[in-house]
């Protein structure tokens, strides 16, 4: 089973998914990210899915689950680089990814994470 690398950039963990997500790979990513957030105290997680051309309902639910786990561990998750076809598929599957922040690209995703950190510092 392939493991998806998790890179640390300051207070942010960066995940770039460049392989088709099989169910086992998605479950392993969920566990790996939870462990890395706890171990590093990261306040942000950015998941770049720009290489994914298709997703199924399981992978969509895993993205929402990863975001929820990160939130419980005091980290904000932003999914970046979603292809239009992926967005359409998620909507057609009835998966709104509630609670998952999204941005068109990494630069905008980093800005979302910076804003989230400021809001948390100010106690909002």
Describe, in plain words, how this protein is organized in 3D.
With 124 residues, the chain is of the alpha/beta class. It has one domain: 2-Layer Sandwich (Transcription Regulator spoIIAA), CATH 3.30.750.24. Helix content is 48%, strand content 18%. It has a five-stranded mixed sheet, sandwiched between helices. Strand 1 and strand 2 form a beta hairpin. Helix 1 runs parallel beside helix 2. The protein is globular. The mean pLDDT is 89.
Domain count, please report it: 1
Radius of gyration: 14 Å
Query: What is the assembly state of the chains in this entry?
Result: single chain
Give the class from helix and strand content and strand pairing.
Answer: alpha/beta
Shape: globular
The helix tally amounts to: 4
What kind of sheet is the major sheet?
A: 5 strands, mixed
Which percent range fits the helix content?
40-55%
Low-confidence stretches: none
Query: How far apart are the termini?
Result: 41 Å
The CATH homologous superfamily is termed STAS domain
Which architecture would the CATH scheme give at its second level? 2-Layer Sandwich
Number of strands: 5
Might you state the CATH topology name?
A: Transcription Regulator spoIIAA
Search tags:
Transcription Regulator spoIIAA; 124 residues; 5 strands; single chain; 4 helices
Write the layout of secondary structure elements.
Layout (H helix, E strand, L loop, with lengths): L5 E4 L2 E5 L6 H18 L3 E5 L8 H16 L3 E5 L3 H9 L8 E3 L2 H16 L3
Parallel strand pairs: 2-3, 3-4, 4-5
Antiparallel strand pairs: 1-2
């Amino acid at each position: 089973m392939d493991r998806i690398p998790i890179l640390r950039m300051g207070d942010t963990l960066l995940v770039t998914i460049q392989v088709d997500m099989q169910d086992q790979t998605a479950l392993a990513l969920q566990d790996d990210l939870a462990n890395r957030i706890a171990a590093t105290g990261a306040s942000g997680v950015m998941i770049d899915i720009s290489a994914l051309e298709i997703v199924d309902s399981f992978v969509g639910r895993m993205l929402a689950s990863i975001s929820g786990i990160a939130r419980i561990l005091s980290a904000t998750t932003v999914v970046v680089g979603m292809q239009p076809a992926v967005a359409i598929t998620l909507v057609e599957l009835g998966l709104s990814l509630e609670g998952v922040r999204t941005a068109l690209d990494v630069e905008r995703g980093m800005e979302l994470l910076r804003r989230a950190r400021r809001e948390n510092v100010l106690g909002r």
